[in-house]
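Example record

The entry below shows one chain as it appears in the dataset: sequence first, then structure tokens.
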Amino acid sequence: MVELFRNIINIISAVAIPLMFFTFLGWGFVKKVKVYEVFVEGAKDGFQVAVKIIPFLVAMLVAIGIFRASGAMDVLIALLSPVSSLIGMPPETVPLAILRPLSGSGSLGLMTELMKVHGPDSYIGVLASTMYGSSETTFYVLAVYFGAVGIKNTRHALPAGIIADIFGMLGALFICRIFFGI
């Protein structure tokens, strides 16, 4: 059963991105949209948005730096370690699970450090990279992008993002345990 699941995941992994690419191109063709021209126009708009988000980006990075430097991250990790041990999550990956919703670059640095210490093919290395790819920088997205377009009330975006991050981390743990049998 596990082998069948692995084979299905491998097939889906191999065809997912090309299938999405050709689906978008095909849908654009059906709707008579000049896909390349629309893409270039969006890229121009993207540059203007990038300039507008710089102040929000700086503020978010400073807040993350203060959070880590104050020791609050260490306290939070200590509080969550018993729960992570209960579900089989190695304690080394708890900081990544906490930092990923806050910062892409910070969590990338943390994941890289885990790879250097434990190796990219180790269980911790594979779990860290799967966790990184299974979640989003929720607070970053809310602060930077919502702030750039002037949205002050995020309504359900924050709880939905946090719930998605939690399930992404748990899903990564589940998949890695199946694939590596740990």
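Notes for this example: The radius of gyration is 19 Å. Residues 54-180 form one domain.
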